[in-house]
Amino acid sequence: MVFKIATRGDQSAEARNLAAQDLWQTCRRSTAVRIDNAGLTRVNEDVYAGIINPALGPHDTMRLRGCIEDATTNRASALVIGQGNAGPTRQHWGLTGK
Q1: Which end of the chain has the smaller Cβ count within 10 Å, N or C?
Q2: Could you list the residue range(s) of the whole structural domain that residue 71 is in?
Q3: Number of independent structural domains in the chain
Q4: Is 44 helix (H, G, I), strand (E, B) or coil?
């Protein structure tokens, strides 16, 4: 899930990062399944990518997206700008090398 964070008041990179982390931690708990492996990576100044493994089903993806777009935390809001599922990796299938 890729989202763009916007803050009101403090516009610093630290404020945006803290708001994105807070929002991600709150919303990853909004799904019906327990999510233990869910990292968040800063893509650029105000865009973050949340990675969940294993991938969520359609209903939980909808719940996560809704939470991210509807929640406001620490005077911040977010807009989902992309989502999708990646296929299994070569490592998942036990393949190595080229």
Answers
A1: C
A2: 2-82
A3: 1
A4: strand
> Contact, 9 vs 21, CB < 8 A?
no
Helix ranges, the chain (H): 13-27, 58-70
Q: Is residue 89 part of a domain?
A: no
* Cβ–Cβ < 8 Å for 76, 10: no
Q: Are 40 and 78 in contact (CB under 8 A)?
A: no
Domain assignment present for 96 = no
Residue 98 lies in a domain: no
Q: Convert the pLDDT of each residue in 26-69 to its tens digit.
A: 998 888 888 888 899 999 999 999 998 888 889 999 999 999 99
Closest CA to 19 of 5, 1, 4, 2: 5
- Measured CA to CA in angstroms, residue 41 lies from 24, 94, 98 at distances of 11, 26, 27
Q: For position 85, what pLDDT does the model report?
A: 73
Taking the C-alpha atoms of residue 84 and residue 2, their distance in angstroms, rounded to an integer, is 9
| Amino acid found at 79 | L
